[in-house]
Amino acid sequence: MTTDAEEPALTIDELAARAGVTVRTVRFYGTKGLLPPPVIGPRRVGRYGRGHLARLALIEELRLQGLTLAAIERYLSRLPPDLTARDLAVHRAVVSSWGPDAPHTLTRAELQRRAGRPLDEADLERLTAMDVVERTDDAFRVDLGLLRLGVELLDVPLSQEAVLAARAVLLEHARAAAQEMSRLLRGEVGQRDARDVRSLSAHLQPLVVQALLTAFQRSLKEELRVWLRDGETAGPS
User: Fold this and answer.
1) Which of 36, 46, 44 is nearest to 7 (CA)?
2) Which of 99, 133, 151, 224 has the maximal Cβ count within 10 Å?
3) Is 40 helix (H, G, I), strand (E, B) or coil?
4) Helix-strand-coil split of the chain, %, nearest 5
5) CA distance linking residue 139 with residue 91, whole number of Å
6) How far is Cα 42 from Cα 56, in angstroms, rounded to an integer?
7) Alpha-carbon gap, residue 165 to 167, rounded angstroms
8) pTM assigned to the model
9) Contact 52, 36 (CB under 8 A)
10) What is the maximum span of the chain, computed from C-alpha positions, in angstroms?
11) DSSP code, position 43
């Protein structure tokens, strides 16, 4: 299993190929400060790691959602500086949810290229169970917004049952939060024109989603701190 602590191993050409962009694009983002500089290794060759790849994928997702370069810079500047590649993948999944659902149909080779790794039958079964992938006769319908996050989950040492149970919990509470937010907005907009309501919703959606993500991350960190503290207090049995 790979970790964020591993040494950066990708050249700029390999990074660009994995991300599906050009080397020129990688260099451009670097000059704009959107992408951290590479680690300089032997022979002065720059090496990139999982964090660079995840951040590049997030930048591309923001661009696909129609954000300008200035807006992308503002979005990235608000992110905590110590985010891991997995954290960035979560943000990318959130950003992809801003747009309409648009599953892509891919061949197995294309799916593996997008995933950035080989996928065996067990991997495909797990991704299917998480509703990231849907098998068709000779291809796969894929939610690209969730694909990278789903691939990351393949390496998490949790049973498939635990992952699916966690997904059910998140969906239940996300739906409840969405319903409450909808009630608040209906009370706020009143009898406004439908176009005004759509405009307000489009403006608020990314802000609300990012706020929910931040609140959840902080709450989860606090719960983990309490759990670990209680375990240390209890000591060995």
Assistant:
1) 46
2) 133
3) strand
4) 65, 5, 30
5) 27
6) 24
7) 5
8) 0.53
9) yes
10) 66
11) G
Domain ranges for the chain: 1-99, 101-157, 159-237
Take residue 230 and report the two structure tokens written for it. 């209680």
Q: What is the pLDDT along the chain (237 residues), one digit of tens a residue?
A: 334 445 568 899 999 888 888 999 999 999 999 999 998 877 888 899 989 998 998 998 888 777 888 888 988 888 888 888 878 877 777 776 665 556 788 899 888 887 878 899 999 988 988 888 998 888 999 877 678 778 888 888 878 788 778 878 877 887 788 788 778 777 776 666 656 666 666 666 666 766 777 777 788 788 888 888 877 676 665
Q: Report angle CA 138, 99, 50 to the nearest 5 degrees.
A: 70
- How many C-beta atoms surround the C-beta of residue 53 within 10 A? 21
